[in-house]
């Protein structure tokens, strides 16, 4: 199965030995999209998506997750440049762990590396 087939295949369709790193999220944009230049000279779009939890942990009052997203895709960056705080956004991509050095040592965090995005909710066919 190719990488593109993994992204489209539901987890139940994958074989026992197939790996899959595919993320699909729909939520509300928290703040404005930022465009940052990284040391290589490339530009990356960075934003946070607030996603309601579908189930609630009985030991927690938390009802949403705030998820860091980024994209190097020029097409996604063009779309993201038109978004405003509070817009409903849908993204597809993969979970990535980013590493960097600080004076206190190595740090890391997880982000969604967005390959496709659009403003608004997707209409599901019935």
UniProtKB/TrEMBL annotation:
Task: Give an example GO molecular function.
Answer: single-stranded DNA binding
In terms of InterPro entries, this protein maps to:
NA-bd_OB-fold, Primosome_PriB/ssb
* Keywords, sorted A to Z: DNA-binding
What this protein is called in its record is Single-stranded DNA-binding protein
SUPFAM superfamilies, sorted? Nucleic acid-binding proteins
The reply on keyword DNA-binding is yes
Q: Which domain of life is it from?
A: Bacteria
The top of its lineage is: Bacteria, Bacillati, Actinomycetota, Actinomycetes, Sporichthyales
